[in-house]
Amino acid sequence: MMIEALTQTRVMVLLIQNASILLPSGEFFLGDVRVEDDRIAEVGSNLDSTNAQVIDATGLTLLPGVIDPQVHFREPGLEYKEDLFTASCACARGGVTSFLEMPNTKPLTTNQEALDDKLRRASEKCLVNYGFFIGATPANQSDLLTANPACGIKIFMGSMHGDLLVDEESALDAIFSKGDRLIAVHAEDQARIRERRAQYAEVTDPAIHSVIQDNQAALNATQLALKLSKKYHRRLHILHMSTAEEAELMMRDKPEWVTAEVTPQHLVLNTSAYEKLGALVQMNPPIRSPHDNEVLWEALRNGAIDFIATDHAPHTLEEKAKGYPNTPSGMPGVETSLAVMLTQAAQGRCTVAQVSNWMSTAVAKAYRIPNKGLIEPGYDADLVLVDLNHTHPVLREEVVAKCGWNPFEGWELTGWAQVTIVGGKVVYDRGKLNTEVRGRALRFDA
Ligand code: DOR
User: Fold this and answer.
1) Record: fold of 65-366
2) Does domain 13-62+379-393+411-433 have CATH number 3.40.50.2300?
3) Using a 6 Å cutoff on CB, does residue 313 contact ligand 1?
4) Residue 8: pLDDT band by 50, 70, 90 thresholds?
């Protein structure tokens, strides 16, 4: 008895009081959430606050923490753009409690050793939970089959130079034919891009980027990936879908083992943004036309596109000022994605429950991440309190990401994260980061 009492450690209790809580049914319930250690223990009314750290959430809405399934956090090797600590701080500010990170770091994450190195770095530095992709090359088949834990295999079918590019059908076929873990593709047709780049070699206006890497380039690659996925009945995820044609393809013909995602920028920005932002909005795949925006929204709303990722891909302002075509592609996103999407909800384009499904629940389901993405007893206490009644602009001086800029600067956003909780610990509270908190490695069920 005595020994048992001595070894019992005290349970940490966090009580979130008086929040508008998003339930798994998609309905809202005004009440409390009791968190014990890292798990949600109870959802109810007037819950006991004895020995609890209390958060008064009056007027705020409680959502499952965002899971961002496509980010480029640059560590190791490119830390001058971003690193796992600064990126995870930006996540905390944005209400992102977990992320899945891409393999185009230095060295590339193409084997167990590189994956272990990232996991070790993340365990030391990350304020939020983390998972990593293993990157495919034309020659690392055995690593793709065995590397663990990995959320999936990433294939750059286009837009990537160096070892990560796999653009030959025979090499792609070999990858699809072996194993059963999820394959996530950056779908752009590299041969077509190469040809068109030569054709427009003299043009220095960054708007040409959307002409060179056109809708057809994206569609060709998505069609090929879909063909291979059907041939082998292989789990396939289409990353950052950008065109009306691909979205229409998904609406017509999407096997139940295939998923697709879209970025906030492909939903709310289009080629008119080049005028004001130039190469800052240059990304791969490029931003498209207002018609593409509309069809992507339609596909998202009707389930043909399953969820949202930012493709957070920070580059410095100096790099972005080099002049096209020497400017790198990509833009940061994790600290504004939730507020951008909740602003769309406030404007009536979708509901708050849909946003939360696209940014958390559906992601956990597709990547088979257990115990995340819902506010329910037994689930991990990864949560975000947002203020749906408060509007605040995106300001460069408030940017946490190391690159120090954001494509939505000046936008008035409604629904910013006020408090972010990772594993039952407050990691961000109204402008203040708690840099002592550490996230955990995500698990992926087979
Ligand atoms: O624009 C992009 N930039 N798209 C990608 O898929 C990669 C990314 C990067 O890492 O910079």
Assistant:
1) TIM Barrel (3.20.20)
2) no
3) yes
4) low
